[in-house]
Design goal:
37% helix; single chain
Amino acid sequence: MEDKALLSDVEITKQLAGLEGWQRDGIYLRKDFVFVNFKEINQFLPHLTKTIVSQNHHPDFSFVSGRKLVAVSVTTHSAKTITQADLNLARALNAWRDG
């Protein structure tokens, strides 16, 4: 279940400190996942889609093939801010190699 708990700026900053590669950009959390080759991308994309479905939280993402990059941007649109759900999604996406 999606946890849309509102967080203070201090709490967001604190949690972001433990999330490698993620940055706050206003009401969004953003990260560029950069890969060595297309095999890695093919391993990451199923993790991305499974995480989206399991958490019922839907980030924007784009694939830049020339740079072997998947850019992810997440916010809680209904709250118009970053919530715990966004940080949970970021944490889960960072764990893709552990899965």
